[in-house]
Design brief:
Largest sheet: none
Number of strands: 0
Order of helices and strands: HHHHH
Radius of gyration: 17 Å
CATH class: Mainly Alpha
Strand content: under 5%
Structural class: mainly alpha
Bound molecules: zinc ion, fe (iii) ion
Shape: elongated
Number of domains: 1
Number of helices: 5
CATH superfamily: Ferritin, core subunit, four-helix bundle
Helix content: over 70%
CATH architecture: Up-down Bundle
């Protein structure tokens, strides 16, 4: 039997999940920036941390457009990714591979965000929430840029340092 849940319900649930995940990513990026050794990597992580704080505000605007109070709901996925990052940091902290491992963990979080913001943007379009879709696309592009920059830093230095 089909229930009465709609795409609009799914959108709201996903928005709460991403709101939680984005706030978690701000904390994760602070931790990652502190642990990074290469100055360029440190700077990139700090910058994306600041950008992520703006993404949290952008999500609050999306809630407003949607007509609901901004609320988070535990995202097990980001918690798991952050726990994994902490474990890797601990295991590799004194090694030459620490930045390479750190970049890998940070990118796992970016990829999760890319998946979620891509989905939310499509759903917002489908629901006729054009302004929300535009805000979500802006964040999606920032996540993609952050991911791309991390790939460049890995390939230009961290991986060689590690090898
Ligand atoms: Zn995030
Ligand atoms: Fe983000
Ligand atoms: Fe989630
Ligand atoms: Fe991000």
């Amino acid at each position: 039997m089909a229930t009465e849940k709609t795409l609009s319900d799914a959108f709201y649930e996903a928005l709460k999940d991403v709101y939680f995940a984005e706030r978690t990513s701000v904390r994760a990026l602070k931790k990652a920036a502190k642990a990074a050794k290469h100055p360029e990597l440190k700077q990139a992580l700090e910058k994306h941390g600041e950008e992520s704080a703006e993404q949290v505000e952008r999500l609050q605007q999306v809630f407003e457009i949607f007509g609901k109070a901004a609320r988070g709901k535990t995202c097990e996925a980001i918690q798991g990714l952050m726990a994994e990052m902490e474990e890797h940091l601990e295991d590799f902290k004194d090694s030459e591979a620490s930045d390479a491992v750190l970049i890998g963990s940070a990118q796992a979080m970016e990829h999760y965000e890319i998946a979620r913001y891509g989905m939310l943007k499509s759903w917002a379009q489908q629901l006729g929430l054009k302004d929300a879709a535009d805000l979500l696309e802006q964040t999606l592009n920032e996540e993609k840029n952050a991911d791309q920059l991390l790939t460049e830093l890995a390939e230009s230095s961290a991986n060689q340092q590690a090898a």
